[in-house]
């Protein structure tokens, strides 16, 4: 991570810890308690990192290298990360946990494909004396710590942006809601947050839970919605992430919609940012991955050593199977044309050259990005 990225990460992490999470309570009690399992002496930490899929660009481009860098920094270069990606297969991920246990990692960071299906594997890890950090998605089972973004707030940010884009025409037609996968607990929180903003203010013509978050499934659902509602009646689309937004926009173009309605997104994927610059996608949710990854690494290294995580985990959350999990939630930013330069470019997530390829050069020039 270069100096600018590190400064941005520190700044956002500091802001995140200042966010008021009083309703969740203090994590001091759990954070100060030493883990009862065998712990590591020194910096020779072996961290098992399990990420859920590789269709979304963020996991391989950001999360993995950021966690590897943070673990190295926290262990004077002596800690190692053992990595596996489940490619959206819950059974594969359970097998990967078994392999990590066999290989005697000291701690696991798990971003679950399926929050319920992973519970048995989390229990196995705990029984083997391996603490578990739930990353980005709150897995079920005896989790020791959790870090993610404020996922209900993500949905609220998306809903507010869509209302802003619709303005006084919010009830002149119908919107389509394209939620994420039911196997992802975050998807339910995004949906809840969005509904809390949109209900009563727009007419929801069709709503879908998109299998496996796949853009092609969102594309199929959007085509069906346009057929059922009429392309002239759809005035906006709530899309839970950028990948699905791409599939949705392709369906809108294929249907011959003359003027694209506002479409939301999430993750600030490069293709999503480029669609925003071009005016095809209205917004995305920028989630600063550096502070999330750094928090996970700090939790993991501390747990492996039996140290306190109270300075990192400043809140508590409950899962369906565990109460009072020490946690840190990171705030998010609505990304539109107006702040591309002050978010993903400023934080060195993408350079202007990466965004402003020949196809987008004119749009970038209009926005002052080149």
Question: If you had to describe this structure to a student in words, what would you say it looks like?
Answer:
By secondary structure, this protein is an alpha/beta fold. The protein is 43% helix and 16% strand. It has helices at 3-18, 28-32, 58-74, 90-102, 119-127, 151-166, 185-198, 215-229, 242-254, 270-278, 289-305, 341-345, 352-355, 361-367, and strands at residues 46-51, 80-85, 107-110, 132-135, 145-149, 174-179, 204-209, 234-239, 284-286, 315-317, 325-330, 333-335. The strands form 3 sheets. Strands 2-1-3-4-5-11-10 form a 7-stranded mixed sheet, with helices on both faces. A 3-stranded parallel sheet has the order 7-6-8, sandwiched between helices. Helix 1 crosses helix 11 (289-305), helix 4 packs parallel to helix 5 (119-127) and helix 8 (215-229) crosses helix 9. The longest helix is centred in the N-terminal third of the chain and has 17 residues, at 58-74. Residues 1-38 have low confidence and may be disordered.
Brief overview:
The protein has about 375 residues and is of the alpha/beta class. The protein has helices at about 5-20, 30, 60-75, 90-100, 120-125, 150-165, 185-200, 215-230, 240-255, 270-280, 290-305, 340-345, 350-355, 360-365; strands spanning about 45-50, 80-85, 105-110, 130-135, 145-150, 175-180, 205-210, 235-240, 285, 315, 325-330, 335. Helix 1 packs across helix 11, helix 3 packs across helix 11 and helix 8 (about 215-230) packs across helix 9.
């Amino acid at each position: 991570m270069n100096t600018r990225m590190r400064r941005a990460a520190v700044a956002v992490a500091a802001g995140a810890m200042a966010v008021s999470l009083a309703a969740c309570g203090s994590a001091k009690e759990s954070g100060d308690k030493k883990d009862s399992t065998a712990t590591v002496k020194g910096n020779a930490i072996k961290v098992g990192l399990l990420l859920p899929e590789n269709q979304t660009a963020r996991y391989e481009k950001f999360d993995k290298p950021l966690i590897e860098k943070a673990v190295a920094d926290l262990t004077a270069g002596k800690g190692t990360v053992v990595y596996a990606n489940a490619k959206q297969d819950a059974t594969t991920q359970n097998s990967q946990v078994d392999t990590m246990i066999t290989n005697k990692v000291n701690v696991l960071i798990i971003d679950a494909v399926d929050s319920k299906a992973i519970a048995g594997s989390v229990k196995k890890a705990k029984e083997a004396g391996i603490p578990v950090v739930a990353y980005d998605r709150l897995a079920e089972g005896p989790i020791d710590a959790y870090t993610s973004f404020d996922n209900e707030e993500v949905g609220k940010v998306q809903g507010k942006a869509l209302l802003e884009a619709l303005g006084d025409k919010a009830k002149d037609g119908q919107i389509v809601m394209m939620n994420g996968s039911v196997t992802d607990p975050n998807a339910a929180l995004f949906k809840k947050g969005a509904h809390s903003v949109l209900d009563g203010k727009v007419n929801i013509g069709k709503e879908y839970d998109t299998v496996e978050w796949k853009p092609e499934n969102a594309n199929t659902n959007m085509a069906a919605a346009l057929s059922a509602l009429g392309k002239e009646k759809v005035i906006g689309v709530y899309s839970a992430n950028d990948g699905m937004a791409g599939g949705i926009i392709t369906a809108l173009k294929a249907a011959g919609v003359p003027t694209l309605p506002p479409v939301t997104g999430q993750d600030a994927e490069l293709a999503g940012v480029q669609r925003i610059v071009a005016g095809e996608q209205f917004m995305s949710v920028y989630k600063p991955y550096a502070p999330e990854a750094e928090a996970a690494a700090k939790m993991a290294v501390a747990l492996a050593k039996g140290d306190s995580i109270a300075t990192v985990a400043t809140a508590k959350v409950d899962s369906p199977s565990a109460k009072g999990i020490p946690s840190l939630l990171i705030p998010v930013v609505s990304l539109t044309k107006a702040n591309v330069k002050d978010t993903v470019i400023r934080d060195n997530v993408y350079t202007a050259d990466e965004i402003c390829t020949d196809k987008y050069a004119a749009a970038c020039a209009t926005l002052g990005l080149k």
